[in-house]
Write a structure and sequence with these properties.
This protein is an alpha+beta fold. Helices cover 25% and strands 18% of the residues. The protein contains 5 helices and 8 strands; from the N terminus they run H-H-H-E-E-H-E-E-E-E-H-E-E. An 8-stranded antiparallel beta sheet has the order 6-5-4-3-2-1-7-8, with helices on both faces. Strand 5 and strand 6 form a beta hairpin. It is globular.
Length: 191
């Protein structure tokens, strides 16, 4: 089973549907295409917080605007001094952010983590962990990364598991409550 199908099985049925044209302006402004599975996840579930940690915004939501968050996040990371923080995986002395082959933020957490993807032929995710002042690289799709994160694997560096037993908890971000209310749960799972 591919990871998108596993993720949907874990999360339960999507609460939204895809909106044509939602991504055009954001992708045009950045000069990149977001991963297809990420766009499908965002269009299906966001804006939302998962398991009280991961915060997902949406490109067409007025208050929880993904485009605004991406550009603010890019500006913050572009302004940092990476001299002592750059891992060996990066080809240049400093990681690049926001250009066609630079890192692009996808989601952040309340634990000081920011998940990025690097555009290209092979799926590649990077997680910056503020408390470690380091990046961790995961050669996988967004769906695989999120599925494994929610299953409790170390997906934000060594010894980083954020497993929460029971079904995944969804919290609607303020002002984004839908027909499901302020919070709801994904599919029941046995551990």
């Amino acid at each position: 089973m591919e990871y998108w199908a596993k993720l949907v099985e874990l999360l339960g049925p999507p609460s939204h549907s895809m909106r044509p044209g939602t991504w055009d302006a954001l992708e045009s402004d950045l000069g990149i295409c977001f991963p297809a599975d990420y766009k499908e996840f965002i269009d299906s579930y966001a804006p939302v917080r998962l398991n009280s940690h991961l915060h997902f915004t949406h490109p067409s939501h007025l208050e929880w605007d993904l485009k605004k968050w991406v550009f603010v996040t890019l500006e913050a990371y572009q302004g940092l001094d990476w001299v002592d923080l750059t891992p060996s995986e990066f080809e240049s002395a400093d990681p690049r952010f926001g250009d066609p082959d630079g890192l692009v933020p996808l989601v952040d957490s309340d634990r000081g983590e920011c998940v990025f993807f690097q555009p290209g032929e092979a799926p590649r995710m990077y997680v910056y962990v503020g408390s470690d002042d380091d990046f961790y690289r995961y050669d996988m799709t967004f769906s695989e990364w999120l599925y494994r994160y929610l299953r409790g694997e170390d997906m934000t560096g060594p010894n980083s598991s954020a497993f929460i037993p029971g079904p995944v908890r969804f919290d609607a971000l303020p002002g984004a409550e839908g027909s499901r209310g302020a919070f709801w749960f994904g599919s029941h799972r046995s551990e």
